[in-house]
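Narrative of accomplishments. A recurring question from our advisory board has been how the design workflow behaves on a single, concrete structure rather than in aggregate. To address it, we present the structure tokens for one chain from the evaluation set, followed by the sequence designed for it. No filtering or post-editing was applied between the two.
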């Protein structure tokens, strides 16, 4: 997190803002971007054909009516996400 966002709290603010900013149906998505070898945050709207280019999504949080934007931090198993991130980055190299 520090390498990609400066600190976990900066990542937390970025993902919360992206998730909260979705209008209607959509998701806030932290994802790994192999070409840049970096972690990014994306907004994905609806679910048909609107996915990040060249990224591997990590946890995807449904942002319908912003129901989970703030609770995301207590609902997600962040140790599992760290393991997913380690897996995708090791496969990319």
């Amino acid at each position: 997190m520090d390498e990609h966002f400066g600190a976990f709290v900066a990542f937390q603010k970025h993902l919360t803002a992206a998730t909260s900013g979705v209008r209607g149906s959509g998701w806030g998505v932290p994802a790994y971007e192999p070409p840049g070898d970096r972690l990014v945050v994306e907004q994905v709207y609806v679910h048909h054909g609107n996915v990040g280019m060249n990224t591997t999504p990590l946890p995807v949080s449904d942002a319908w009516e912003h129901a989970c934007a703030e609770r995301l931090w207590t609902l997600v198993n962040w140790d599992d996400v760290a393991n997913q991130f380690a897996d995708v980055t090791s496969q990319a190299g």
